[in-house]
Amino acid sequence: MNNDSFPFKIGDFECIAISDGMFKYAPPIFPPPATFLFANAPKERCDQELREHNQQPEQWKEWKSPYICMIVNTGKHLVLVDTGADDIDSNTGKLLQNLQTEGITPEDIDTVILTHGHPDHIGGNTVGEGKPAFPNASYVMWKDEWDFWTSGQAELKLDEHIKEVLLKFARRNLPPIQGQLDLVDHETEIVPGIYAIAAPGHTPGHMALSISSRGEQPLCISDTVLHPIHLEQPEWYAAVDFAPEQVVTTRRKLLKRAQTEKALTFAFHLPFPGLGHVIKKGKAWQWQPIKG
Ligand SMILES: [Zn+2]
C-alpha cells in the first residue's frame, strides 16, 4: 500500500483516503507523547497499555501522526473532508500534490467539509496570500466552531506556544473563506448522502460525518480519537482536547454506534489509511484496521 492515497468504495460513492503528510509531536514544543495523548492516565496503567501495543514507554519520544484527508465522489458532488496542515512542517502540506496525482484539481472540488478548526484540518484552506485554495467550493463548518475560532477570544488552556500556533492558523485560514462559507448548526444532510453529526469535545464544534450510499453507512469520526489506545481507554483524553468530559461522552456515543452498526470507520490521525472497524473489547472497544 502506498501511504499517499487509498481508494475505496462506499456503495456507489468513490472515495479516497488521501495523505497530507506526517507530523512528529515531540518535546520541547509538545509534551512527551504519553502526556500529550493520555493527559489524565495513571502512569503505571498507561505504561502497561503501551507495552500491550508494542511500545516501550521509556522509548516513546515522539508521536508520529499521519494527517489523512478524504475525498468522496458522490457522482453529483466532489467533496473534500479537511484540508491538512499546509506548511506547518516539511513533511506536511502534500494534499494538493496527492490530489493532482489522483487527477483532481482544486477547481474540481465543490464542497470542503472542515471537521474542526485545528491547524492540521484547516491549514490547506488557502493558498498564496490568503486566496481560498478551492475556488469553486462551499466550505462547510459547524457554527459553534467557526464562532469559537473567529471571535478573537478563543479560550484555550494550553501552553502559550501551542496556543499561538492554533490561533495563527485560525486567523490565517478562516477569514479568507468567509465568502464561501456554509455553516451548519444542527445535524443535517450537507450534500445528498453525507450527514453532519455533532461531536463536540475535542473542540467546541467538532463535527463527525455519516456517509451513506446503497445501504452502506461508514462514519468519519475525525479527531474523536487520536490513537488506537483511546478506543480501549475512552476516558483518557489528550492535552489538546478542549472539553474532556464532552470528549468522553462523544467517544462513547460514536464508538458504540460504529460497533453496533459494524460501520467502516475513518479517523484522521490513526495509522494510514485511517480506516478500520470498532470492535468490542471488555467494557470498551478496540481498533481493527482494514487490511490494505
Ligand atoms: Zn487533528
Question: Explain this structure to me?
Answer:
The structure is a single chain. The protein contains eight helices and 16 strands. It is α+β, with helices and mostly antiparallel strands and 292 residues long. It has a seven-stranded mixed beta sheet with strand order 1-2-3-4-5-8-9. Strands 10-11-12-13-14-15-16 form a seven-stranded mixed beta sheet. It is globular. The relative contact order is 0.16. The model has no long low-confidence stretch (mean pLDDT 96). Bound molecules: zinc ion (ZN). Zinc ion binds at residues 118, 120-121, 223, 268-269.
What's a concise summary of this model?
By secondary structure, this protein is an alpha+beta fold. Helix content is 24%, strand content 27%.
Bound molecules: zinc ion
- Measured by DSSP, the beta-strand proportion falls in 25-35%
CATH topology: Metallo-beta-lactamase, Chain A
User: Unreliable runs, pLDDT <50, ≥5 residues?
Assistant: none
* Whole-angstrom Rg: 18 Å
What's the total number of strands? 16
Using the coordinates above, name the CATH class: Alpha Beta
What is the total number of structural domains?
1
Q: In sequence order, what are the helices and strands, one letter per element? A: EEHHEEHEHEEEHHEEEEEHHEEE
Going across the biggest sheet, name each strand in turn: 1-2-3-4-5-8-9
Question: Averaging pLDDT over every residue, what do you get?
Answer: 96
CATH architecture, by name, is 4-Layer Sandwich
Main pleated-sheet profile: 7 strands, mixed
